[in-house]
Amino acid sequence: MSDTRATILVTGGCGYIGTHTIVCLLQKDYDVVVADNLSNSSIVSLDRVAEIVGLSEHDRASRLVFHQVDICDEAAFRKVFESSPRFESCIHFAGLKAVGESTKKPLLYYDNNLSGTFVLLRMMDEFQCHSLVFSSSATVYGAAENMPITEDTPVGAGITNAYGRTKYMIEEILRDFYQSQTLEESTTDWSITILRYFNPVGSHPSGKIGEDPNGIPNNLMPYVAQVAIGRREHLTVFGSDYNTADGTGVRDYLHVMDLADGHLAAMDYMKQKKSGIFTFNLGTGNGYSVLDMVKAMGKACGHEIKYVVGNRRQGDIATCFADANLAKNEMGWVASRDLDEMCRDLWCWQTQNPNGFAGQPCESQ
Ligand SMILES: NC(=O)c1ccc[n+]([C@@H]2O[C@H](COP(=O)([O-])OP(=O)(O)OC[C@H]3O[C@@H](n4cnc5c(N)ncnc54)[C@H](O)[C@@H]3O)[C@@H](O)[C@H]2O)c1
Asked: How far apart are CA 252 and CA 73, in angstroms?
């Protein structure tokens, strides 16, 4: 850690979005402390981050510090704060995110995602770090009907799973917490940004880091990529009778590097605003259907992706895409990478790491 560079705490920093964001942080000359229990990630991911950024072993020891810790374990997490310089800001990715699993194990999801956030807020308060970026999700909009979705669309109603409700609840908790900070004094130095992600896809263009799902992928594009590389025989498209141009579900996919940039934009915005609680959609504002995505991935990998059409999946809606103008107008953030880039980079990751991080180190490939 350095006297001149600011240090950022990244919870869940070994995961998909965390690693991409850390690349951006290190490249913008921040030092990073990662707190992750590796429940859904591999430590190899941080080796790859160091490779991408070109950190020497010496620099890595000081600029990218890893703590294997469950953030729900207050005593253990306190040690992270005690042993680090004061954090300028925290980006809070740590959480469980598998929608289907959350329906089967709601208590695990409520416990992990809510308790982790409680402990984090207590530690941030105690150790004087008053700037937080929180990973929320478009899922908080439930079954919103008016597209594109703006940030003032009602949230909470119509969420179909426990995972989504943890995100909604945490948003509410953050608002209550922020309000509490303004009670005694009319001003506070706390600033909190809630980022509602749409559908991040793709990888760093080097192909060294990417999404590495455990078992059967929950999300469309990792599944499509595994079909493309021959790990799975075909994709099942859930429903082709929606009220959309080709009958398949439409979503707002954005490149994970654009999403990563959004966290740095949020940190800059909070610095400029000094205090407040802010909410932004992060998406492209474009909707692509399942078949658009299948076609784009076919183009990236050079052969057709096999698919079969199945029944609709319970809880799925026809169309969901963002109005991302608030993030553009307020933070100056726009998603600039297109669908071809998303698929090209996903394919680069998939071909270099057909078995994810469980394979051999990337440098030798
Ligand atoms: N990927 C998406 O499509 C998407 C969409 C919307 C929101 N989000 C949210 O963004 C965040 C990051 O998502 P991701 O795709 O990178 O997920 P991920 O699972 O790849 O990363 C989350 C990381 O958090 C860690 N973690 C979980 N519980 C922890 C705990 N108690 N203590 C310490 N570490 C813990 C995991 O080991 C993992 O490394 C999550 O909060 C997720 O809910 C993701």
From this structure: 35
Task: Report how far ligand 1's centroid is from the alpha carbon of 244 (Å).
Answer: 30
Domains of the chain, residue spans: 7-203+253-285+321-336
Mean pLDDT for the stretch of residues 198-217: 95
- The secondary structure element, H or E, covering residue 332 is none
Query: Atom 26, ligand 1: which residue's CA is nearest?
Result: 94
Half-sphere exposure of 353 (CA within 13 A, CB side): 26
What's the 3-state SS for 41-72? CCCHHHHHHHHHHCCCHHHHHHHEEEEECCCC
pLDDT tens, residue by residue, 114-158: 999 999 999 999 999 999 999 999 999 998 999 999 999 999 999
Asked about 163 being catalytic, the answer comes back as yes
Residue to probe by mutation, ligand 1, list 10, 14, 16, most atoms within 8 Å of CB: 16
CATH number 3.40.50.720 given to 7-203+253-285+321-336? yes
CB 48 within 8 A of CB 209: yes
Best residue among 93, 155, 211, 346 to mutate for probing ligand 1, ranked by most atoms within 8 Å of CB: 93
